[in-house]
Predict the structure.
Amino acid sequence: MGDYSVIADVSASLIKLLREQMTPDPIPQPELIGLGNPVDKGDFYLSLFLYNVKESGDNRKTQMISRGTGEIQYPPMAVDLHYMMTVQSPADLQSRALDEQRILGRAMQVLYDNSVLRGSTVVGTLAEHGEEVRVVMDSISGDGMLNMWNFADTPYRLTVSYIVGPVMIDSTRIKTTKRVLERDVSIQG
């Protein structure tokens, strides 16, 4: 569980993982991997873009959480984060497509081999609470991806979509309760 910053912590954890495992090959410097809209002008060879956040009904919690004597906290909200991973190589036109495919292949391999983010891979509130999240490639069709790639006059770039979650965002709602001091047990006979 985490506070409101847990979404940013997931993004930072993904970038940290990709930077640690993709440099210096196939990407020469870690700063060339980052968070950004796929059409932002920049130097990223590989970018992650959080394009959607959905409540994860399958992982929704309903149990109140005890916070000591006299207080219970409402359960956390479970969400799934949807990312676009986009590749852009600065290579010349003749080798650009192959270079982008190598970068994408390595990034997919890294996320597949680390399909559960946990331990030293995570940062922030995820690390503080020992949380883990799954990383799964999204099964968006080619047409679906092209429809999502609706960024004005920018031509389509090689992109893969991932779902990361469930991510738990703590509720700030707390309810005070009174301790049970007496119990009456009657037996009906």
In short: The CA atoms of residues 143 and 149 lie 10 Å apart.
